[in-house]
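Posted in: Protein Modeling Q&A

I'm a second-year student putting together a small comparison for a lab meeting, and my supervisor asked me to include a predicted structure for HTH luxR-type domain-containing protein. I've never done this before, so apologies if this is the wrong subforum. The sequence is pasted below exactly as I got it from our records. If anyone can share the structure token output, I'd also love a short note on what stands out.
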Amino acid sequence: MYEADDKMILLIGDNYDLLQSLGSFGINLGFGDKTVREVCESQNVDTYTFLAIVNFTINGYKEFDDADRLSIPTLLQYLEASHSYYLDFELPFIRKKLEEALDEKDNLARLIMKLYDEYAHDIRKHMRYEEKTVFPYVNTLLEGKANDNYDINTFSKHHSQTDQRLKELKNIIIKYLPSDSQHNRQLTATLYDIYNCENWLDQHANVEDEIFIPAIRRLEKKSKQNDVSVKISSMISKNQASNETLSDREKDVIICVVQGMTNKEIAGHLCISTNTVITHRRNIARKLQIHSPAGLTIYAIVNSLVDIGSVKL
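Accepted answer (user: helix_wrangler)
Welcome! Here is the predicted structure, written out as tokens:
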């Protein structure tokens, strides 16, 4: 377990694989003897989220003290930068190494390149989907906007690792190639890179499954709760606004309805025609969206038009 007061250089010394993670967080080297907290704060990275990912990827630790403290923007930054690293650097780098190690005139070599290109296409398609659909969806949640047409479970159900072709590629190289010592050395070095690539991809997928997706589920829950609160507040505001637009005569009609009078009795009591009473009741229903005498009774009590003690329930 690494903590905020540990020296950043200690983390790198113990786990050189973290060098790639530092770049994904946007952390530059040259931090001297600063602690993890000092480095993160100086480079605008959430310390808690950084350590959560570091401790998970190194030790498999995912029992966070307070999962609500995870910074969604920091997680997005990490995942987006990881995609950029993998698509823009790692995939082209390995392809170039394969080209250098294989004889382009050999049919088996061409098939290996084809297999690698198919893998690269699949992983690129997978990551572009996240960038075009999942990440923008999360940003809308951060803006407080709920989306009834999509949720993180939709992504989770289709979030399968796309490294089957990579495993197949490794096995073919190990079993069937190469024939001469020069290509053998080059392919062995490339194979080592492919293994590192596979480990990185597994790590990336695990961070999404174990940290990112659960964090977005919590964000969705909060967003839906906020959305319900906003709707309730809106309904209350509308009712209050409607109450202000009721005329005094309409309020008199409501009181009479609550007291159990018929339209004819209301007309006689208020010295107006029955048709006028009917018009008033239509306007009341339209303004309040309340159509039953029981509903008008509740409205009258809540808005102090009548005293609950005077109402025959």
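A couple of things worth pointing out for your meeting: The chain has three domains: 1-67, 71-236, 246-310. The first helix runs from residue 8 to 14.
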